[in-house]
Design goal:
The protein has 452 residues and is α/β, with parallel strands linked by helices. Helices cover 33% and strands 21% of the residues. It has 12 helices and 19 strands. The strands form 5 sheets. It has a 6-stranded parallel beta sheet with strand order 2-1-3-4-5-6, with helices on both faces. A 5-stranded mixed barrel has the order 15-16-17-19-18. The protein has a 3-stranded parallel beta sheet with strand order 7-10-11. The model has no long low-confidence stretch (mean pLDDT 93).
Length: 452
């Protein structure tokens, strides 16, 4: 006789890849303890919303998701238990507890590893609503299972948690804690487990990957970790995200250049280029250093694809300083670029700054840069037409005129566009050589030539 699952649980994951990993860990722990993970609210008796609270739009998205679920509970599913986890709970749990009576449990970022114990509270007849927000000191290990989508061929690999940079606009240290690195052996063992599950690409992530190991005995470096990851059999691609430009070293760039498994791709979140704005942001890096890192990256790693993220509308960003940023974007020609409108977050130093900029003006500045970047991206993608690229196949195409969809080494998942392919035997997990036949400002189009 099949054992009846303790609960049917749906996990909704919002926010960044780091949050997604926490959701996968919670899912793995819950499944391991006998619960059934489902994908629809109407099949669940518990829904966990793992939230983000980095900036106002993320908070608004999380609250909207909670309210929709609360309405569903009220009208159609009165026995449903709602759990709010993650950054929103860590930051506002006590306040939301009184404002959202439909939510049964709030658990903060430090409670990821204890999720089974918290869910087991629903077994108890005397269960009462609670918020459980403790010190944000959780750090995953390779012994914690992760519930990944069945056919996924790439996975994020979180090498550290928290952040010690203390940028003036950022709440991450308060909701995630100070930077704390995982032991190298633990990371490598998790990468081996992922490879054994059929993962072809690991995407190395943290709040600041370049700071990895500085808090550990012996100060293991990111460069050494990357080289050791490349020795793992079954992993074909290694990708690096969230590399603070202040901490990029020549050794790191040479490691990327010298290793065939490491994608020639570098995510450098510069946020701005004006020195006055950078100083106000507490970025601890100058415009000269940023330009030097970009020049070194392109020299040492030929063909490197550069991604960055920017913040516009930060206090002290005068029209002249914004134009300096715009000129820099046009001169530098990043392959991929994202723009955030500055979000005035309570509890941050920047929230107290004078010269706050109107929302409409911030949005106008964002749109100007995005329009410029669209033209730049289209031009860069056009130069790839006729080139031969490796592509990792991820799924069948949703377009009738193409057989599969994947990514080339220049494209990170979810943020950089995809490559549509025509050809035979384009199964998920295959890495094929392809010729780029067309491009737009976001996606590439190709025909396969051969597979590995």
């Amino acid at each position: 006789m099949k054992k009846t699952p303790q609960h049917k649980i749906r996990i909704i994951s919002l926010g960044c890849p780091k949050n997604l990993i926490d959701s996968e860990v919670m899912g793995g722990l819950l499944a391991q303890s006998g619960n059934l993970l489902v994908e629809q609210n109407d099949r669940a008796d518990i829904v966990i919303i793992n939230t983000c609270a980095f900036i106002t739009p993320a908070k608004e998205e999380a609250i909207e998701e909670i309210l929709l679920l609360a309405e569903e509970k009220k009208k159609r599913h009165p026995q449903l238990h709602i759990v709010v986890a993650g950054c929103l709970a860590q930051r506002y749990g006590k306040e939301l507890f009184s404002q959202m009576p439909e939510v049964d449990l709030f658990v903060g970022t430090g409670e990821v590893g204890n999720i089974v114990d918290h869910i087991n509270r629903f077994h108890r007849d005397e269960f009462q609503r609670q918020f459980i927000v403790t010190k944000p000191n959780f750090l995953m290990t390779c012994d914690m299972p992760r519930l990944l989508p069945a056919e996924t061929v790439s996975a994020y690999l979180k090498i550290s948690e928290g952040c010690s940079n203390r940028c003036s606009y950022c709440v991450i240290p308060s909701v995630r804690g100070s930077a704390r690195s995982r032991q190298p052996d633990d990371i490598l063992r998790e990468a081996e487990i992922l490879a054994q599950r059929g993962i072809k690409e690991v995407i190395v992530t943290a709040q600041d990957t370049a700071q990895y190991g500085r808090d550990l005995k012996g100060r293991p470096s990111l460069s050494v970790l990357l080289r050791e990851l490349s020795n793992i059999q079954g992993l074909d691609w290694i990708r690096l995200l969230y590399v603070h430009p202040a901490h990029v070293t020549r050794n790191l760039l040479e490691t990327i250049a010298d290793n065939k498994k490491i994608c020639r791709y570098l995510d450098l979140p510069i946020q701005h280029i004006d020195d006055t704005v950078l100083k106000a942001m507490h970025r601890n890096v100058s415009s000269a250093k940023i330009k030097e890192v970009i020049a070194d990256a392109r020299k040492i790693v030929p063909g490197v694809a550069l991604r960055t993220s920017l913040i516009v509308g930060f206090p002290k960003e005068t029209p002249t300083r914004f134009n300096r940023l715009l000129d820099f974007v046009n001169e530098t020609r990043f392959d991929h670029l994202g723009v955030f409108v500055y979000s005035r977050e309570e509890g941050t130093k920047a929230a107290t700054f004078k010269s706050q900029i109107a929302e409409k003006e911030k949005e106008r500045r964002r749109d100007i840069i995005l329009n410029e970047q669209s033209t730049i991206s289209a031009a860069i993608n056009a130069t790839l037409i006729g080139s031969i690229q490796e592509a990792l196949i991820e799924a069948r195409s949703d377009r009738a005129d193409y057989d599969a969809v994947g990514r080339i080494r220049r494209q990170a998942p979810e943020i950089d566009g995809v490559t549509y392919l025509r050809g035979k035997n384009l199964r998920p997990g295959n890495i094929v050589l392809c010729e780029i036949t067309a491009a737009d400002e976001y996606d590439l189009f190709a025909k396969s030539i051969s597979s590995k």
